[in-house]
Amino acid sequence: MYEVRDHSARAPRLPAAVGRAPWLERWLETCRDLSELTASHPMMDAVIDEIDGRMIRVGDRWLADFASCNYLGFDLDRDIIDAVPAALDAWGTHPSWSRLLGSPALYEQIEERLTALLGCEDSLVLPTITHIHMSVIPLLAASGTIFLDERAHKTIYDGCQAAKARGAAVRRFRFEDPDHLDELLAAERDPTRLVCMDGVNSMTGNPPDLVAFAAAARRHGALLYVDDAHGFGVIGERDPNESSPYGRRGNSIVRYAGETYDNLVLVAGFSKSYSSLLAFIACPTEVKQMLKVAAPPYLYSGPSPVASLATVLAGFDVNERRGDALRARLHELTGRLLEGIDRLGVATPNRSGLPIVEIPLRDHKRIADVGRYLFERGVYVTLAAYPLVPKAEVGFRMQLTAANTEDEVDAALLALEGLAERGLLRTRDDAIGTLVATG
Ligand SMILES: Cc1ncc(COP(=O)(O)O)c(C=O)c1O
User: Fold this and answer.
1) Residue 159 backbone dihedrals phi, psi, to 5 degrees
2) Atom of ligand 1 nearest to the CA of 69
3) 0.90 exceeded by the pTM?
4) Is any atom of ligand 1 closer than 6 Å to the C-beta of 401?
5) Residue 392: what pLDDT?
6) Residues 184, 145: contact at Cβ < 8 Å?
7) Which pLDDT belongs to residue 208?
8) Is the CB–ligand 1 distance for residue 202 below 6 Å?
9) Which stretches of 308-390 are assigned E, i.e. beta strand?
10) How buried is 14 (Cβ within 10 angstroms: 0-12 exposed, 13-18 middle, 19+ buried)?
């Protein structure tokens, strides 16, 4: 048995309810499920003591990690790790200038290579996607109208809220429904239109029909803004000789869908497939020039650490040399998991075969028990508790990476079988609500 750590010491120390401010009371009530889980559950807010490949040690228990988004396994790649010391010798640990003041030449190299990989006109890198959404969405929307995918990632929502505070209107269109977007755009009189949505969905693992969404946006003169945090590095341009159905080169959803960057800006990051801290926007050069004087993270935020810049550059090399083989491996492992899930008759919204596999529960109140069962069997996943997702959609998410093994996948399937036998998982015959994006 694993030793359950006493997480109570990490539970928030809050004043007694009597006299507690009403706003604080409201937040505590909204987040009660999640804060109780975080304070008491070994699979939430855990301290990871050690890693060995894709195995992680929490206290005295080793678990197979299916919560990492390091899809290509670059976090463990020797060629990438070895690239860091020379960059630190040359540049120190952290440049500290905001990009407006100056950027190490590494930035130029990254933007050049990224632009070539994506096949776009130009690109700009900033530390995180969250920085980009919060600063770029308000600039692109101005005081116009944003059409927001109702299931868009929380960080896109937040960017739209910032735009709203600066005079934009926000309207929502139904998830995976380009016809609804088309209808809303056709009825809109505001000439400034921005459509914001996800690429590969961070919960369902499915890509949208980008061709249909781009056509609707172009038909009505709207700019399409797509966040492909989970697709970049995994999916890419199609080729008859591709080593897997994920396509080649991992150059993201626009190339995967055979689309163009015409009236489309792509946002994604290196913090998932490339295991680094950096993000980008692919856009026309004139938009990049505007962002260099108007986007607050370019002007005021600290930059990414040198180790991150170095691992991105080394990641481009590894992607060129071995990326397609890693994606083929990722596809194979994901297939093994999805086939096993199918044999068990367990429901998942994943229709794409991409390495994000959400498993919804029959009863949201059992999330802590399900998490404990998985933990005891050495399987580490992302618990999607309320309010991260609506109560009807509570479950857990498993991501595969090229660094997982067949044995780890089989251990996970055995645990899933146990959960299914106990009636805790939805079956394919139960209706699956469409899952909302959390992470
Ligand atoms: C779809 C999506 N967008 C944005 C983010 C946030 O990315 P970042 O950590 O670069 O801000 C995430 C993170 O999980 C994500 O899944």
Assistant:
1) -60, -40
2) 14
3) yes
4) no
5) 81
6) no
7) 98
8) yes
9) 356-360, 379-380, 382-384
10) exposed
